[in-house]
Amino acid sequence: MTLNIKGVNVMKITRFPQYDFVFIFLILFSLSFLLSACQPRIDGKNDWITFKHDVQRTGRTTARISTKCPRILWHKDIFQERTYPVIFDGRIYFTEKSNQACYSLSQSGEIRWERSVYSNASFFYSPVITSDGIHFVTDRRLVAYNFQGERISYRYFVPISTSPLIIKDVLYIGTSNYKRLYALNLNKNYSNLWSFYAGAPVRSSPAASLDDKRICFGADNGWLYALDSKSGKLRWKYKTGGAIRSTPAVDNSDGTIYFGSNDGNLYAMDPDGSLKWKCSLGFSVDSSPAIDSKGNVYVGIKGMLYKISREGKIVWRFKTNDFSNASPTVDGNDNICVAFGDIYLVNPEGNLIWKFESSSKFHSFIIIGKDGTIYTVSDDWQLYAMR
User: Mapping DSSP to helix (H, G, I), strand (E, B) and coil, where does residue 33 land?
Assistant: First the structure.
């Protein structure tokens, strides 16, 4: 076919009907590519998208905290309950008890949107961010919103007692009353895939193995369980002498699983379920360990920050004036940030870099943004941003 404009031939098109499907395929492929390109890109090393940063619950980020004592950038008097925010693309997401709501804040602390969770909830847990949006969890409800604040999933559920874990299209959550770990399908409105009966309340948030094929968590009966992530079948379990409420942390270099027990020990397990070592710390270890880039483990007990080598030896203790337990955070320089009333930054040798003091006291988990901003919640229910 020839196109003619004022007697001038400008284009000649020859059709080959047998190849039309190729053109259709290329158009559909291009549209699919453009749509996927519009989806937010999550940086697993820097974005703080889940409780304790990542699915292995390492408590470590590549973002670096300044070695100068921080100043307060802003604080918001909108919390009535300590909770753990998550951060993505410079925006902060969290749930809040007094208004029974989910929030999205800008990097400067302004409210972008607020959504009701339709619940007389008593507990709120750390949200989880996926490429589709944010999954918020209360003690009886799961609800997901896209990044514009439009609801995409909702389910009324049994009493929840842990922060959620998401691997691919599956959400894992623990319950206390039902004594189970549940696997829920994100693509079908949180419908049940399977559940595992643990025999006791589950208050230890689940963590993923390096290959995402195992889910590890503890229960109040002292057992650490490792389940097949697809089927929920028990792969192995290990018995300690006390309740396990510490969230396991999985070393992303060799897969070693670290967790605490109320029997006063910190444990290290090989991925196959054999005991690597246990280290006696003298008090219940219900705080959650963090792991640095060299495989050293940090845990906060009774106002004391401990560094334990990957061989299970106590390297040093850093004493504070507090007597609470705390779950530390490790930054990209392997410096350790922890809240024991005041906020401390300690170097890998156990020396104080700085101590942040204010009229407010802090005992919540420390979260680090890509630019090194520290986010945490004070005891008087305010969200702070400091750098």
Answer: helix
List all residues 6 or more positions away from 245 whose beta carbon is below 8 Å from its beta carbon.
203, 204, 218, 220, 262, 286
343: its two tokens: 């906020």
Kindly give, in sequence order, each residue whose CB lies less than 8 Å from that of residue 332, ignoring residues fewer than 6 positions away. Answer: 61, 62, 63, 64
> What is the side-by-side order of every strand in the sheet holding 72-76?
72-76, 383-386, 374-377, 367-368
Q: Which domains does the chain have, with CATH numbers?
A: 288-387 (2.40.128.630)
DSSP string spanning 176-237? SSS-EEEEEEGGGTTEEEEEEE-SS---S--EE-TTS-EEEEE-TTSEEEEEETTT--EEEE
Is the separation of the CB atoms in 357 and 384 below 8 Å? no
C-beta of residue 130 within 8 angstroms of C-beta of residue 142: no
- What is the Cα–Cα distance from 249 to 334, expressed in whole angstroms? 16
pTM of the predicted protein model: 0.89
What is the residue-wise DSSP string for 223-290? EEEEEETTT--EEEEEE-SS---SPPEE-TTT--EEEE-TTSEEEEE-TTS-EEEEEE-SS---SPPE
pLDDT tens per residue, the chain (387 residues)?
444 444 444 444 455 555 555 555 444 444 444 444 445 567 656 799 999 999 999 999 999 999 999 999 999 876 555 578 999 999 999 888 777 889 999 999 999 999 987 667 777 799 999 999 999 998 889 999 999 999 999 999 999 999 999 999 999 999 999 999 999 999 999 999 999 999 999 999 999 999 999 999 999 999 999 999 999 999 999 999 999 999 999 999 999 999 999 999 999 999 999 999 999 999 999 999 999 999 999 999 999 999 999 999 999 999 999 999 999 999 999 999 999 999 999 999 999 999 999 999 999 999 999 999 999 999 988 999 999
